Records
---
Amino acid sequence: MNDCKTILEKLTAFYSNLSMQDVPTSVIEKAKSSLMDYVFVYILGYKKGHLSRSIINYAEKRNKNQESTVLLENKMFDAELATLVSSLIAHSVELDDGHRWGTAHPAVVIFPSAIAVAEKQNATVEELIKGVIVGYDLMLRISRSINPSHLKRGFHSTSTTGTIGSAAAVSTILNYNQTDMAHAISIAGLLSSGLQEMLHGHPSIKAFQVGRSCQSGVLAAEFVKYGGKGPSTMFEGEHGWIKAMSDKFDESILLDDLGKRWEILNTYTKQYPSCRHTHHAIDLAIEVFNSNVSFNTIKKVTIETYSIGYAEVGLIRRPKNLEEAMFSISYAVAIAFKYGFVTYENLEQCIEDNDVLKLSNEIVIKISAEMDKVYPEERGCNLIIETSFGDEIKLNTKLPKGEPETPLSKEEYKNKFKLINSQTISDVKFEKLYHLLDKIDYKYNIREFIQEINNLKI
């Protein structure tokens, strides 16, 4: 590290020499639970995702190699295409994990590329997990070091930093030395892209944007085999990634405490299939429902939240379709008031529910200057309800459930998996899959692992 001059050299000096013996057990266990979360979310995306069949059809027409399997489809694709397909499917239902400081969703970028290349390389689960840990760590360190400036400039962190994380994960699985890993990450940085504008028209295309970024990470790493090279100053150069992507960058967040601060431990888990900025309010609305406040007695609702959340989920009041529904805080809260839960199914079905739509349209959403001051350390929400009886209910939270500070229990994880797939997986197959993922063997060959999942015929 002392002889390294550029940011890229310092990062790859650490990651390329990382041994699993140096990784804390808590980090490994988190990676395994993240794999489980990814697979169950992927299943819902495969069964219900808006563009899932479209991307599979696209890949089938362009496929030339039999390298990597698309889960549940039980077909082999070129590794890059398998990555694109799997990433889009997993991200299509807004249930994947995230990182509030980096405003990014790592699982849907890191796992598709890592699994596809691990299968192509005939790697083990242990090699996969190592790649995932490295991919998460680099992606989220970068994302954390440039946000919220990056987001405010209109970039989509999952796509931009995800390309780099994908290349890091793949380089680890390919067992690249420092030089080759540096070239892969550098090329990935040159390929990275993604804009927040996709939220303002047909937002389901966000999943395609993420999938393409994930695919680009695989392309970058694979191209190094054929002589591809990138600039060592890719990050901090005069025309480099950092200056292009952000007005404010914290180098210490990116480089400090390598091997001590593992960003995978700072990820959150979603319980509801909607943008994370809706979840704090949904938690509070469910609390109101559980206190036996009748939907019909709710007269007025006010939501106070931070400005970034408002910009992403506060503009759509009467969603016309499911893809809009996943980005409407008022709509999700109205559903929670009426039903006491928010699932993929009722997000879709309530588009025809006039009572839900009426309340959603009438909810007042305000930006709180105080919440802006503490964002992203806190992603808070105040919920104020006036009832037809003249009562006023005030609830607040600093963080939604599932954050590192508000973790889900193992039972809550399992309940999430069962609830989101209650209409897609039988109880018997659910238990078999849960057991397979919960007791995953490190020495398992990835091809065997994937085949065992596909053999369940979910």
---
Amino acid sequence: MSTAKDDRKIAAIDKELRQLLTASLHQCWCSGKKREQVATEMSVHAGVTISKAMLDHWTTVAHADTRFPAFLLPSFCEATGDDRLRRWAMGVRLRGVVELREEQVSWLAKSLRDELLKPDRRHRGSKAKGK
């Protein structure tokens, strides 16, 4: 039996999910990709038919009875080119691991880049023999 507190928690999670879906779709729209195209790409990737109307229902709080199916998460992220939803679904612990690894890779790449771009000190200021 769910309590009012449980219902509020579920509603907050559902709202956050809908906001993430909407933000990803808005980002696509800003780059020229409409919801119809996202739905088509999701359909191809998932092997099931996805319509613009379905995307609209999954993003609208007024359709609280229609929820985004978890099995479509990879298809949505591929179609939108946005991994925010996938990261959100990971949860805090796994997201922390991924973010730590990204920081490590970024630091390593910067260190390697700095090392490669250093002037070659062995030849600096050396004079040719006999001069």
